[in-house]
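Recall that a protein's primary structure is simply its ordered list of amino acids. Everything else, from secondary elements to tertiary packing, is in principle encoded there. The following example makes that idea concrete.
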Amino acid sequence: MIVNFIAIYPSREDQKQLYKNVRHLPGKGLGLVVAQKCVELHGGSIEIASISCNGITVTILLPKVA
């Protein structure tokens, strides 16, 4: 699954914190933290494919259930 969304554009320094609950950034700050934990619990992976002024592309890979 690939998700594209428009969000607050993080600075280079803030990009290092994308998977952490950072209190100094506006917003709830839990989206990627919760998503990463859910994906990992299901044996998958999540990565930020690209960040631009137009938004963020997040790629989520989950194993196929037989």
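The chain has one domain: 2-61. Strands lie at 2-5, 45-52, 55-61.
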